[in-house]
């Protein structure tokens, strides 16, 4: 018995959202802002036209927890195969792939495990899965029944 593409899409949405929650925990417990805020200050010094924000821990964590809860709240739409959610699923998968890649690449560049590194492989894998299942669900839903 082959799983329905809509169910796989739902599970891939859950996997990426759970991976993001784990990634936020990884960053929060490894003092991500101690690396991020000084990096933003250095970038701003060279490129003052870039509107990069710095954060306090409380604001940063609140925004990320709210984002994870919002994405988790959209899970029933993914399991329902809601076509309009594809417009969010593709950017979500791409953004999380970029996030995971950036953590891995900066750790390689720094030659040290930076905050967020440990959860990045899971973030990469689940973002690829969401991207693939979103593409598959688009193909399946385009076929007349």
List keywords for this structure.
single chain; 6 helices; elongated
Question: Can you give me a brief rundown of this structure?
Answer:
The chain contains 6 helices and no strands. By secondary structure, it is mainly alpha-helical. The chain has one domain.
What does this structure look like?
This protein has 145 residues and is mainly alpha-helical. It has one domain (5-140). The chain contains 6 helices and no strands. Helix 1 packs antiparallel against helix 3 and helix 1 (5-29) runs antiparallel to helix 6 (120-142).
Distance between the termini: 19 Å
What is the domain total for the residues?
1
Poorly predicted residue ranges: 141-145
Backbone CA Rg: 17 Å
The helicity comes to: over 70%
- Quick check: average pLDDT? 91
Strand content: under 5%
Number of strands: 0
How do the helices and strands follow one another from N- to C-terminus? Answer: HHHHHH
Taken from the alpha-carbon principal axes, the silhouette is elongated
Specify the structural class. mainly alpha
Q: Describe the biggest sheet? A: none
- Total helix count? 6
